[in-house]
What we know:
Blueprint: H1 13-26, H2 39-46, H3 50-62, E1 66-69, E2 73-76, H4 82-106, H5 111-129
Antiparallel strand pairs: 1-2
Helix pairs in contact: 1-3, 1-4, 2-3
Amino acid sequence: MQIYLDHDSGVPIYLQIMDRIQHLVATGILKPGDQLPTIRQLSVDLHVDPNTVVHGYRELDRDGIISTQQGRGTFISEHPDGEQLSQMRRERLNIIIGDALLEALSLGYSEPDIRTTVQTRLAEWRRHSGPRSEEYY
């Protein structure tokens, strides 16, 4: 499991850990029952304080995304709630779009330029993806 941190982003590290794990679950890379690294191992891998990993894991456990089993380890929840997965996917999309908008606006692009570009890119994607593209709308 690869987790990348951006120490310059201003986003707390525990939130970055949570976001990455949620992303991996929402995209199906991590599946119910998959075991996560131990707190100690992840803190060593990421070069962060173990308490930071504890904070992230605790929040994910509280949200029902992971399950910590004393003496066994930490696992992706066996029965993820469909609405919860949908919510995680929506949140991830909002982050992606928000980051793209922030960058475009900070570079001086206008709202109409951004809107036109997004619509053009979606149309191109539909043309190249064929009939299956409608499944995603």
